[in-house]
Design goal:
Four copies of one chain form a homotetramer.
Chain A (H helix, E strand, L loop, with lengths): L6 E6 L4 H9 L6 E8 L7 H4 L10 H5 L3 E2 L10 E4 L3 H13 L3 E4 L15 H4 L5 H9 L4 E4 L3 H17 L1 E10 L11 H4 L10 H12 L2 E3 L2 E3 L4 E8 L6 E9 L5 H10 L3 H4 L10 E3 L8 H4 L10 E8 L5 E8 L3 H17 L5
Parallel strand pairs in A: 1-2, 1-4, 2-3, 4-5, 5-6, 7-10, 12-13
Antiparallel strand pairs in A: 7-11, 8-9, 11-14, 13-14
């Protein structure tokens, strides 16, 4: 790991399901120090008492003792970066206030993701999209800026599509998801609804996944992102799994493609975070399994050198002909699909001088 | 209901998971009388003692008292029809023996499904395929004959594809299944494998579904079935649901198609069993739900006038463009996908004189 | 069935999880006619649109069309009885208003259960407790009156204890429950909390079960109920089952008791509803299973002549010595443990002239 | 940690569900080196190919490459200790052969547990029972010897009873278990049996738990173990949890007991492994939680300084009076309840000179 400066971080939405994942990950981070926790109703209480803690892992004791602050810029004074795990309905306004006040905000919320001057980051795919931040500052007259990370479902999918588009001209992607309960937050899905059942619908999810993937996979040129032309059809389902979104992908290509080549290409995929050896970057962004019956959420969601940060792919095979491919992919929805990618984005920003 | 003769039936594989569904359904049948139960290791025992009964419904007391017989033609003497719920590895030989001995066999097993002279029946779709039985008898020199019913996963799918092909020239079908535990029989899937998990693989299933659907949807001409040219890509998954296979379908068409038209077409679909008012024929082979979040296995698998015999479709919407469609379908895998379709086939055969 | 008059009923809390069970059961009732549905936020809407329907069974179409009314006495004008499925925090006041206005209220809520002048009814056990209604009317100066039915967990337990106390002087009962999700209502238990888990606590439940059982099993004399002296220790747990509360019971007796005698005694238990042949009375209030591995919630919760109204008992065996017994019991928490017992109570009241 | 010699270990039953837990735990051990893996049908294959690996954690690569050997003494030549994770039906004979051939065997199987000259070890409770090994060697004329560890269900229970007996004269224990799926091995419980269900029976389990606890808690005197006089009534249930056995305990005492005192006593409990600072000994054998709703299997099974080795207790409260207590306990059935206690026993034996 190369040298870096120490980074002070604040967290918006600290007690929610996504917020908790930051509390779970950041205390072990080499140089990102979570100094300030902010919340709504929990403000004024100690974090350990305000939160309904969802993990088996014991909560970091220093975090437990921190008093949750009001979600306003003054609370984060002295911090270099603000992570936002706010619900989207409040994120739009609150995040803008922080950026206006000079903070760099990295947000998990959907509120600003599709703004044309806001980067939607998966650092392995589109590190150069960070340059949109200049446009954004100029256009909005802000001292700070907002970067976003995508919907949990689109993250793993986009990572798998990136090398398939680059090497084989993937043109069409038909996707069915089987998504974990934690994607709906807490309390989220009632047990009476999902027990011994599948729910074939997640509100707004299909639209979000398609639109966001096109932006993430788009090209940055002249200060603007041109969306990827890939065509997408998405069907989202909820299943009784705690963590880990499974997705089947059928893709069509502009050329013939062999499953063996595709496996090699996916396994070899690397991005800027691997080159820079960022601390939260997994050695292999995509792990390819060759057994018939993998990936499986319970067994594979924490695979790889940074648990939860690799996408696991299996069952790579041709589709209806030599120009089409089918595969199954799994990614951890609250790590790679949320806090992990946000932290990785912060690491990239630090290295590229955006936090100075 | 029109008049019919009384039909005496025998059952091969009576104690297995599929066999039990016949024991569950037939005692209430108006004219199919289950007279003889046959089994392997269970032969010689009373059915009620030999079986590991899987249903909440109490077992029919007359069935419980029947002594299971050896699986050979003499056991079924006097019966008009033999249902086979045998495992495929033994079905090939045993079923042939029964047909050779003069019995009409209706089989759930995959052994003979793809034989060119054996009809693969979903009576709503391909009632005329029964005429293959003449070819079969002649070619094999048998007095009896074998008719088969499809794999549980392909049944609901084929029923939905039929009107879409006929009315809108469906050309390509990309399907992802989320299949119930009962599809794997008993003991079947270990709980340690599926609890809080999804398994992205079911052995041989994808190949079977595609090949069988093409045959089922094929045209019968000059004593031969010409398979449907529809192209299919299938991804099969196991989920922690007891009964009811869910499937997402993305289809492409030779013409524009509106979701509203497709819904109407699907809801109006009727086949020969509805015309003939066969007792196990549901009023509506396909029930269309317009809520966002239906069908769901636990809520909808028993929908319709004959519980478990209707396919429930929902989320009908366009795919990537006006020439493509996406929808979700659900069918009960051990009723419509197994015993129910076999019983319906027997009813059709009775009405068309094949049991005389 | 003997003759009876037609009874017009109203329902408070019609859209909740317990309320729905009445909508599920009453439309098939021979003489209880559900005329008026009342609710809070749902008032003014058609029931079919206001409710988040939890059952696989299709909703009765007449019920679906009924417009939900405000929860006040005028709404129920002309009704002979008012069922209350209100949450306890609002039940206290609302139910009193209805009783004051002259209605007979049969309530599932805990609000009035422990009032000394309010009967807590399981008709098989304590039909004579209805006579408390006279005391109640006199004492409170009401024209109407309130009868209550117990907590779902205590219902099955009390039914099993009743014959064991009467015949063998049961003195101490140590009980551990494994309770179904539907007992917590909807949305109730979050799936993230209960998936692959057990929750060893249900708020206030242990205290309620013990206190209510003592009242139910108490003796009515001189217008007062003297609680049963039985000592009880209860541990309540939530498990990932949809319907059906399982309970293990260890009991100590004032005399020796053999498991065989206990089984006979339990299986022979009958109460006033059986004598009167009330329509919702099961032939056998307690069904005894002798297999090692029964009862099981998914297989046995709907056992008996009136599905869901019988308690199923199994694994009857001695405890630490000849004066103690262990067994497992199962009862359907929203039928026998809620709506079913309330309906049975209404039937008893009709027969005994309390609705005139 | 004090000094120790390096110990070479062999493992019988390496591919089974319990065997896998050793492969999961031992490669990280400071001085126990797993040199030899033995199996039945898997003999001759590489372990990584022979096993159906059940854990999310990647298998140790050195273990994966080991060739499984035949289960006979020659295979273990040079080893200082033999762990047995054999199924009980084969354990009796095979383990005796190893002991006769001079090996110290530490066995998870039930075969020899109740032999009067075989110690049944939970090192925190009965370290001195190891002295039975002298009796055993002498009596049987063996050079080696067999030590056993208890049934998974009795382990946590015995650990909780030990301080309650010593300090408060616990006399009677009424226990209901809710046991995890992994306790039944693999394939174990069929998913169709346990999904949305509870099974109120585990073969032979209740008898084993009671008898073994009395032996474990017994006193060693004059070369003989005198069983504890505590009276026990046990009801065992299977629930849909992967790992972690929950148990409710109702206990009666020879004196008054306050929940606060009991909590303190439980939390302070330490045994010989803690004194000796054995590597697999958790700092706190019993962790007491004071929240209402803990322990929970998914959240607490890996609690403590050595994950899976602490018993977690909660809901400590009085029972029917001041001389009785109720509580809930949780212990990891394949770590504390199996491999972990066996490894801890081996560590104790090494320290006390039994492996020289």
């Amino acid at each position: 790991m190369t040298k870096h400066r120490e980074v002070k971080a604040a967290l918006l939405g600290a007690t929610g399901a996504v917020g908790q994942r930051y509390i779970n990950m950041l205390p072990k981070h080499p140089y990102l120090h979570l100094e300030v926790l902010m919340g709504g109703e929990s403000a004024g209480k100690k974090y350990g008492q305000a939160v309904h803690w969802l993990f088996p892992d014991a909560m970091d004791s220093a975090m437990a003792e921190k008093v949750v602050k009001q979600a306003r810029p003054e609370s984060a004074k002295g911090c270099d970066i603000v992570f936002s795990a706010l619900p989207s309905e409040v994120a739009a306004e609150v995040e803008s206030k922080f950026a206006e006040a000079g903070f760099i905000v990295v947000s998990e919320a959907s509120a600003h993701r599709m703004d044309s001057d806001v980067p939607l980051m998966i650092p392995e795919i589109n590190a150069e999209h960070l340059r949109l931040l200049e446009t954004q500052k100029r256009k909005r007259g802000w001292k700070g800026a907002i970067a976003t990370t995508p919907n949990c479902t689109g993250t793993g999918l986009s990572m798998v599509l990136k090398p398939l588009i680059d090497e084989y001209q993937a043109e069409k992607a038909i996707v069915t998801t089987m998504q974990a309960l934690s994607g709906a937050g807490f309390p989220g899905v009632p047990s009476l609804s999902i027990q011994e059942n599948v729910i074939p619908y997640i509100k707004n999810e299909e639209e979000k996944v398609a639109a966001e993937a096109k932006k993430i996979l788009g090209t940055f040129k002249d200060g603007v992102i041109k969306p990827s032309p890939i065509e997408m059809g998405i069907s989202c389902n909820r299943v009784a799994v705690i963590d880990g979104h499974m997705e089947t992908l059928y893709a069509e290509f502009g050329m013939d493609i062999s499953p063996e080549d595709a496996e090699r290409t996916l396994a070899r995929f690397r991005g800027e975070p691997q080159t820079l050896k960022l601390p939260t970057a997994p050695d292999q962004p995509i792990i390819v399994r060759r057994e018939n019956d993998r990936p499986q959420p319970r067994l594979d969601r924490m695979a790889g050198s940074v648990p939860g940060m690799s996408v696991v792919v299996g069952r790579v095979r041709n589709g209806i002909d030599a120009r089409s491919l089918q595969l199954t992919l799994l990614s951890h929805n609250t790590i790679r699909g949320a806090a992990g990618t946000a932290i990785l984005t912060a690491e990239l920003m630090e290295r590229e001088g955006y936090l100075e």
